[in-house]
Amino acid sequence: MYLRKRFLLIMLLILVMLISVACSSESNQDNMNLEEAQGIIVDKRETETHQILVTPNIKKETIGEKSDDELTRMASRNDGAWYSIDSSTYASITKGDQVSIQFNSNGVLESKPPQFVAEDIKVITD
């Protein structure tokens, strides 16, 4: 009887360890799915969060010629996206800046253009 209880206790401990390892592996996987995007900031907005609309493969001069609606449609067609950023970063960047953004692609909010949370953002200077 004593051996049986001891065996069950050991099996229970092994099971708990396996579950905790599996849970930590899932959270690490989220961190490993960081992707990078580069483009021009074509719009900024303050909603519940501070967001920037970044569109790749356009020229800075193009954004001055378009309305906000046209820029949003252009971003949707050209793989642009909204990125939520912290307020200090939001204050330090401007429309027309070229940026490089790291973001978690698992955290997408379905919309056109899609919305992500930026993990890191850098302004690219020529």
Characteristic key phrases:
126 residues, alpha+beta, OB fold (Dihydrolipoamide Acetyltransferase, E2P), 2 domains, five-stranded mixed beta barrel, 4 helices
What kind of sheet is the major sheet?
5 strands, mixed, barrel
- Percent strand: 25-35%
Query: What separation lies between the terminal Cα atoms?
Result: 76 Å
**Total individual domains:** 2
Report the C-alpha radius of gyration, rounded: 22 Å
The amount of helix comes to 40-55%
Give a nutshell description of this structure.
Pfam families: DUF3221 (PF11518). This protein is of the alpha+beta class.
Describe it.
The protein has 126 residues and is α+β, with helices and mostly antiparallel strands. The chain contains four helices and five strands, in the order αββααβαββ. The protein has two domains: 32 residues; 90 residues, OB fold (Dihydrolipoamide Acetyltransferase, E2P) (Beta Barrel). Helices cover 40% and strands 32% of the residues. Strands 1-2-3-5-4 form a five-stranded mixed barrel. Strand 1 and strand 2 form a beta hairpin. The model has no long low-confidence stretch (mean pLDDT 85).
